[in-house]
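S., here's the first fold you wanted:
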Amino acid sequence: LALYFHIGEREEKCIIEDIPSDTLVVGNYKVQLWDVHKHDFLESAPGLGMFVTVTSPTGEVLLSKLYGPQGTFSFTSYLSGEHIICFQSNSTRFAVIAASKLRIHLDIRVGEHFLDESAIQAKDKVDEVNVRLEHLIEQIHHVTREQDYEREREEKFRKTSEETNSNILWWAIVQTLILISVGIWQIKSLRDFFISKKLV
């Protein structure tokens, strides 16, 4: 996931990532500050830091740390589900004064372990094959966890659909019984009315 978004200097911005359990997540970000004179974003945001907070699906805080205007954060999920990743600058200026816009470039990698190519080149061919093999095995484990998580979600969706269909069926039966009961009651009421008026 690679994107950028704008926030106010005192504003908090959160994104939601659906992550399988036991998965490493690595995020890189860079903050740019709006220059009112140039009418453009500066290359960086000098003097500003960024609070990064990560919350698990159960509401537990997995990460809460202050970084600089550019940084890398990482965490490992222990539950599958929607994780909330929030960003907020450490600006201490009053809200009236802190009217600057910030642009945050964000790159999130889920379940990836990157190869250090320079380290690989420094090793002999056997070590290179071993490192690449370990990387492939890790990628296979990640794909397996992703598939298991998708199967869990599909199973939950199927159960929800079956319960909904069952509820719809029972509601239809109840509606039919109510209509039949009302029809019988109306017929009986009309019959009693006609008898009382000596029309039949």
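And the second, which I think is the more interesting of the pair:
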Amino acid sequence: MSVNPMVYEAQFFGFTPQTCMLRIYIAFQDYLFETMLVVEAVMLKKLEGIPGCKVSPSQIRKCTEKFLVFMKEHFDKLFAKMEEMLLQLVLNIPKNVLLPEDRVQEQYPYSEEEFQALQDELQQLQQQYRAEVAMEQALRTELEEQKIVKAELEKILQCFDGLESICREQGVGNFKESFALLTQNCKKLQDVLKDVEKKSEKMKQHDQL
């Protein structure tokens, strides 16, 4: 079998010429094997009708196998010549023939350097696209987080509004001022608590002495 890849022919035919030749070879070979089996069966049937014939089926099989080897050797030689002729004259696209889908290359030729530059530009654009997609995903994630935070803040504001309404109903002054005063008082209580804890610690140390 030919080792020439024949890529252009494969593009035109939709299959490699070598694959076509291989299938033809297998088909011929299978037909040859089937023919030998038919010949063997006919010989056995003819010999059965001859009185006193001492030729056994195993002897017929050995003769059939030898004849098959002989035929296969000649078939391989003939097929090699047929393959060479078909690959050169039938399944071969001449070098000066251009396929219709490749005519655009004739109108707009480019060098290997230009092709490599296009490849580099394409790769750069792909990287930029992936980066933009990742950035868009990050922005969407941040937007979702902001929506969650906004919802929580709205809940807190609703809670404050409810507290302010309750304060007004109970005759309490401005809720914001009351809340600020409450915060200051809590801080003072914390300072007093810390001072008490310090004095208590000193008294314990004095008792231990």
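Why I say that: The chain has a mean pLDDT of 80. The chain has six helices and no strands.

Talk tomorrow,
H.
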